[in-house]
Amino acid sequence: MAGAGELTAGAVALQRFGLGPKPGQGEAFRAQIRERLLAEIAAGGVAQPEGVPFSGTVEIGKALFAFEDHEKREREARRIAAVTPAQDGQQGMQMAEAEPQAQPAGQQSQTAPAKPPNEPALPYRTYREEVKARVDLALAAETGFGERLVMFWSNHFCVGATKSNIGRIMAGAYEREAIRPHVFGRFEDMLIAAESHPAMLDFLDNRQSVGPNSPAGRRRGRGLNENLAREIMELHTLGVSGGYAQADVTNLARIITGWTVVGREGVLGFPGSFAFNAGLHEPGVTSLLGRSYDQPGRAQGVAALTDLARHPATAQFIATKLARHFVADVPPRALVDKLAGLFRQSGGDLPSVYRALIEDDTAWRAPATKIRSPQEFLLASYRALGRKPDFGQIIGPVGVMGQPFWQPSGPNGYADSNAAWASAEGLKTRVDVAAGWGRQAAGSVADPRVLADDILGPLLSPETKQAVARAESKPQALALLLMSPEFQRR
Amino acid sequence: MTAPHDDDDCERMTPSRRAVLGAAGALFAWSFVPTFAYAAAGSRDPRFLLVILRGALDGLSAVPPIGDPDYAGLREGIALAKDGPEAALPLDGFFYLHPAMPNLARLYRQGQATIVHAAATGYRERSHFDGQDVLESGQPGAGMTRSGWLNRLIANLPAGEGVSRKGILGVGVVPPLVVRGDAPVLGWAPPRMARAGSDLTMRLADLYGQRDPALARALAEAMETEGLAQRRGMAGERKGGGGPDSADGMRRIAEGAAGLVGADDGPRIAALAFEGWDTHANEGGAKGRLANLLGGLDGAFAAFEQGLAPVWKDTVVMVATEFGRTAAVNGTTGTDHGTGTVAFLVGGGVKGGRVVADWPGLKPEQLYQNRDLKPTTDIRAVAKGVVSELFGLSGPVLAEKVFPETGGLKPVPGLVV
User: Fold this and answer.
1) Which member of B54, B203, B218 has the closest CB to residue A427?
2) Segment A5-33, tens digit of pLDDT
């Protein structure tokens, strides 16, 4: 039998490491949550979302190019049709020009209010299905620990779904192909998978980067784009104070020239998939962080990334981010050092690091200070309410709360601190969102007081219990439960 | 307005440009005494809005030095020209303004806009996130504090002072670091969802009061702004629209901030952020990606001018970015992370119609690390100059509390009317 302290710690852990309990699940889990988490690590692997429109990059590339060709023909036809009547020529031209300007597909109904809303274009439709499938999986998960790790790594190696059609249509596939297979694997495998995925090569511009002395560089006068190289070191491996200089950034950019996306002609492989294009690659030996890389072709980049993955600064950087994410904005130093040590000793074996985190008592018993991110809040709320949102019910709330799926404002991903999420405006928006969820769920939840007991268990304070009990309505009681400090913090 | 000059040698700067810069630097050795600032603070009710451009604005495209003989060669493919169908807008004959910014050009001609060129904070690396941290924290380096310099500015105004009592507005669901800290922060974002009933909010305020002081404080601040927005008739605004990286979003954010800051009982200081300036590829010239963003910023200037009309004469809008971009175009018709860039000062309170620049030149040896526009004016000195004259903070407070370790960095004087 677990004691009261153990039960409280278990209740916090359900929220800290997972996505929060579902009705009826809490009591059984709280007493043995640690064993369950360790068993998940031992089993390894995370599930893949089901019901997505394309199995992967190869299918997407084919569909995307067909879509873009079709769009181009349509635009051309509209332009010609608009120019033909002489008196309307001027206006027609303007409309034809305005069309391609990336109108977010979700807003199409606003531009044409008289007509029924159009079916959104293929990239957005795909994005929508991918988001829905991902959320369904997170709602179905037992503890949600694996899904939390997916969210963590997906944010660490983030891509953006708003930059381009490729980004939008591939954001989900990127997570499925580059992140999920390696969440319980080795860091360097995830690193190489992420940096060589078309979505990343597009997001951080490496697909366009050309070695100045490569055949293409000499012929066309194109050159380097150092965006991806910089973020690999700053954001993905060493961290900004990891000891690299501008020359290292430029040299890593040289090393990964040729890592690109196959074009619509499919010369180097399936259109839209990753390819190493030797014609773009900067030839010769290049040094990085004092080490020389003389490998030919793609192997040069793989060697450089492997060394970056094994660099001690990377271990420290990843350990700090993991501890900050799960435990506290300012994580215990000893815990970070312990995780970093394990990361180094195990060669970046992620399950070893997770195991140390779960087994560590400071990680286990630290007070619940971190506020849930908007995505965690959405998932925990729908789990607690026992409901399934449709796409609009997902994308609306996380959008207004500032964390839409795969759309961070920069390559550093979403913030991971209370300063970002527990702001005045952020909290006010949460109240608005929670009020909406309370109204939605009022018909399906029998008794908010029972649900509060069930979901929060030993964490439920007398004050929250009373606030829920005295609410003027069932929707309000549910909103109070979701907005209570015990539910918000983990 | 400064006279044209077509030399890249800063020894031959125009007199007015030299005078402005000299005062900031070596020509005047005495320490800055803001006696006039206290007088000014007593006689006016100033407004200060800081706009942060996240992603590093390309200053050489926003305010191209077309008079510099090396400019066009570096900017092959995206260079702007002083004549032709898409000509840049003339400023002083040496510097021009991007053609997507006609409002700013008009404000400049009206003496209500100053452009600071070859400017940067003290940060000399090229990480966006550290660069923004330095710009917003006001610290000499990144990761040194969790409070922003605007918050410390308010916190160090005399007790009971109206400006500090009214708090500071941080626009956005996630408030910018520059406003975070101990002084009260009001939050606001363009409304996109039905508001919860006030009864629920009151009950939560009560619960947080008993259980969670940090959440209680945040909610109280949110309720205060909500009340203000309602009194300003802003509650029923249309929902939806673009984000802070679109022209539509920038205008709506600017309109909202102007509405709140323009209120009699509203905050006097606000910070907001526009995004999307990281133009590594296909940056564009007179048209294109950067042009769209600059057009959005230009629309925001118009929205500020309109929304703050009654107090415009006492308003300064400062626009700053974390650093600039490479002087040369990169291999993908864009620019990579650089150093020196531009800052804008706009408003009826600005002594404008000037480009403030100690121009370093664009020859390889004149560039910072042979690569970036060399910064010759510290953005912190500009900010110190503006806020000391607007709010009457003393030199030592500015140099120790607001921008720590900047005792050697004199505020640029004479920026404010």
Assistant:
1) B218
2) 888 989 999 999 999 999 998 788 888 99
Chain A CB contacts of B210 below 8 Å: 463
Q: To 10 degrees, what angle do helices B198-211 and A474-483 make?
A: 40
pLDDT tens digit sequence for A418-455: 999 999 989 999 999 999 999 899 889 999 999 999 99
Chain A hits for B180, CB-CB cut-off 8 Å, are: 419
Nearest to B377 by CA among B4, B23, B15, B9: B23
- Residues in contact with B221: Cβ distance below 8 Å, sequence separation at least 6, in sequence order: A424, B167, B184, B185, B186, B187
Alpha-carbon dihedral sign for residues A278, A281, A284, A285: negative
Q: Collect all residues with Cβ–Cβ distance below 8 Å to B59 and sequence separation of at least 6.
A: B117, B118, B119, B321, B324, B325, B340, B341, B342, B373
A352: which residues sit within 8 A by CB, 6+ positions away?
A: A342, A343, A345, A346
Interface test with B, best of A111, A393, A423, A430 (most B CBs within 10 A): A423
* pLDDT one-digit tens code per residue, A70-95: 999 988 998 888 877 554 444 433 33
DSSP letters for A318-387? HHHHHHHHHT-SS--HHHHHHHHHHHHHTTSBHHHHHHHHHH-HHHHHS---PBPPHHHHHHHHHHHHT-
In terms of Cβ atoms closer than 10 Å to its own Cβ (0-12, 13-18, 19+), residue B297 is buried
**ipTM tops 0.85:** yes
Do the bridges between strand B354-356 and strand B96-97 make them parallel or antiparallel, or are there none, so unpaired?
unpaired
Neighbouring C-beta atoms of residue B16, cutoff 10 Å: 15
Calpha distance B68→B89 (Å, rounded): 16
| Minimal C-alpha gap between A208 and chain B (Å) | 6
Strands B269-274 and B168-171: parallel
Burial class (CB in 10 A: 0-12, 13-18, 19+), B396: exposed
Q: Which residues contact B233 (CB under 8 A, 6 or more apart)?
A: none
- Other beta carbons less than 10 A from residue B351's beta carbon: 16
Q: Report the residue count for chain B.
A: 417
For residue A231, list chain B residues with Cβ-Cβ distance below 8 A. Answer: none
Place of tokens 């101990």: B182
Cα separation values, B158 from A71, B163, B164, Å = 62, 9, 8
Minimum mean pLDDT range among A214-223, A457-466, B222-231, B342-351: B222-231
* Paired tokens of A194: 């992420």
pTM of the model: 0.81
The residue with tokens 């299918």 is A59
- Least confident among A31-35, B107-111, B204-208: A31-35
Instruction: Judge residue B155's burial from the number of C-beta atoms within 10 Å of its C-beta, 0-12 exposed, 13-18 middle, 19 or more buried.
Output: middle
Question: Nearest C-alpha of chain B: how many angstroms from A420?
Answer: 5
Residue with tokens 């030839």: A283
